[in-house]
Design brief:
The protein starts with 13 loop residues before the first helix and ends with a helix. Helix 4 runs antiparallel to helix 9 and helix 6 (about 130-160) packs antiparallel against helix 7 (about 165-180). Helix content is about 55%, strand content about 5%. A hairpin with a 4-residue loop joins strand 5 (about 380-390) and strand 6 (about 395-400). It has two domains: about 15-275 and about 405-455, 2-methylcitrate dehydratase PrpD, CATH 1.10.4100.10; about 280-400, 60s Ribosomal Protein L30, Chain: A. The protein has about 450 residues and is of the alpha+beta class. The longest helix has 28 residues, at about 130-160. The protein has helices at about 15-25, 30-50, 55-70, 85-95, 110-125, 130-160, 165-180, 185-195, 210-230, 245-250, 255-260, 285-295, 310-315, 325-330, 335-340, 355, 360-365, 405-425, 430-440, 450-455; strands spanning about 75, 80-85, 305-310, 370-375, 380-390, 395-400.
């Protein structure tokens, strides 16, 4: 059994118990808030996927999928083509994470929708399933991956595993299993098949491989559920067994966290959305810089030095000191802080490119910034101190760990973000129609109109 449980807990049949919970979820049983946030996750993911469809990564993967060929079962969003469900999940999954502008959940320490939505959308399109089934499957997937992530703790992430690729595989498998109507045992088998494929290295952050992890999680999880539905065998205790997922990939196994308030506590409402087009680990830093600039009318030319304190997790995640590509810029607290202090739009995708990261004014300010470890910071907190040349010092501590409690406001912001992302790809009229459809998705008998509008 896994070696380092944090508390005495009977983890017998842990995988089966999570599978039974997931397969027992229905649209009618879900809290209204949970369904609403799932809707927000979907519109946000559709938007960043459409925008990401113009990235080089998407073009490469789309070309490979179309050259390989396959049954026309599901849509490549923004790609103007259809392919097999597995290829669609792979391409759409990677594309949706290509800009690193998609949602996060700090319980799983990753991007929840990026792994689940591509798998279930492709499967729902192929099988002619409707909005209620899709939203239920999305919640099932997110809840499953968050509980697996809680079980693995930060030790898994800190060891160098990218949780979106590893933990996300379980979410994709559970979401697909929900759409396929699998029972608990078949879902547990799917989790086993997904678990033996789960991978993704943090060393790849700043390259095309990071979004590739999301695509692989989606396609692997979908494939796992489809194989299980045909009777493919695996262990049904992959999470808790000796030399299983926890035993091999974390030193801080906490099975109690996976089962905490199962059936009454939902993790979907804690999804956090991005309004800056960079790694979420930079967002507290960006907010700190922008707040101090507004409050004190800071002129970057008069800045002597800046110190940023974050927890050590972020030092390994988004602390590229001297980015030379746009992708690397998304993982540089120094670069994004400098952009914010200079009044640059950190929510504009076009601002993350090879020219911007090497712009003299930005580099000059960036090099006056030092990022240090501060063990008192939370997962998404930052402390910033700006020392001015006149001797004055401005300080602030920011926290972006708390989701917006006003869901109407959140929907409005995400709808506007979607229109900005999708309009240039599919046209403003089609984008506006997609917002209408997702707003009332539970009334849709199938997803045909949504996928047709997003085909590009």
């Amino acid at each position: 059994m896994p070696q380092a449980a944090t508390a005495a807990f009977d983890d017998t049949d842990l995988t089966l118990r999570l599978a039974a919970h997931g397969m027992g979820l229905t649209f009618e049983s879900l809290p209204r808030e949970t369904i609403e946030v799932a809707r927000h996750c979907l519109i946000d993911w559709l938007g960043v996927t459409l925008a990401g469809s113009r990235e080089p990564l998407a073009e490469i993967m789309r070309a490979e999928a179309l050259e390989e060929g396959g049954a026309s079962q599901a849509t490549i969003l923004g790609g103007g083509a259809m392919t097999s469900v597995i290829q669609a999940a792979l391409v759409n999954g990677a594309t949706g994470h290509a800009l690193d502008y998609d949602d996060v959940n700090l319980t799983m320490i990753g991007h929840p929708t990026a792994a689940v939505a591509p798998a279930i959308l492709a499967l729902a399109e192929k099988n002619g399933l409707g909005g209620k089934a899709l939203l239920t499957a999305l919640v099932t997937g997110i809840e499953t991956e968050c509980r697996v992530g809680a079980m693995m703790n930060e030790a898994h992430y800190n060891a160098g595993w990218h949780a979106t690729g590893t933990v996300g595989s379980f979410g994709a498998a559970a979401g697909a299993a929900s759409l396929l109507g699998l029972d608990a045992e078949a879902c547990a088998r799917a989790l086993g098949i997904a678990g033996t494929q789960a991978a993704g290295l943090k060393a790849m952050f700043g390259t095309m491989c990071k979004p590739f992890h999301a695509g692989k999680a989606a396609s692997n999880g979908l494939y796992a559920a489809m194989l299980s539905s045909r009777g493919f065998e695996s262990r049904t205790d992959v999470l808790e067994c000796e030399q299983g997922f926890a035993d091999t990939q974390t030193t801080d196994y906490d099975p109690a966290a996976a089962m905490d308030q199962l059936g009454t506590k939902f993790h979907t409402p804690n999804v956090l959305f991005k309004y800056h087009a960079a790694c979420y680990g930079t967002h507290a830093v960006i907010e700190a810089a922008a707040s101090l600039k507004r409050a004190h009318n800071i002129d970057p030319a008069n800045v002597e030095k800046i110190e940023i304190g974050v927890r050590d997790t972020l030092l390994k995640m988004c602390n590229i000191q001297e980015p030379v590509t746009g992708l690397e810029g998304k993982f540089s607290m120094r670069f994004t802080a400098a952009m914010a202090l200079l009044g640059e739009n950190t929510g504009l995708i076009a601002n993350y490119n090879e020219i911007k990261v090497q712009e003299a004014e930005i580099v000059n300010l960036r090099d006056r910034i030092k990022v240090v470890n501060n063990k008192d910071m939370g997962k998404a907190e930052a402390a910033m101190s700006i020392s001015m040349k006149d001797g004055s010092v401005h300080q602030i501590r920011t926290d972006v760990e708390t989701p917006d409690s006003d869901l109407d406001r959140q929907w409005s912001r995400l709808s506007a973000k979607f229109l900005d992302m999708a309009g240039p790809v599919i046209g403003d009229a089609k984008a506006a129609r997609v917002v209408e459809l997702v707003a009332g998705l539970e009334n849709a008998a199938d997803l045909n109109e949504v996928t047709a509008l997003c085909k590009g």
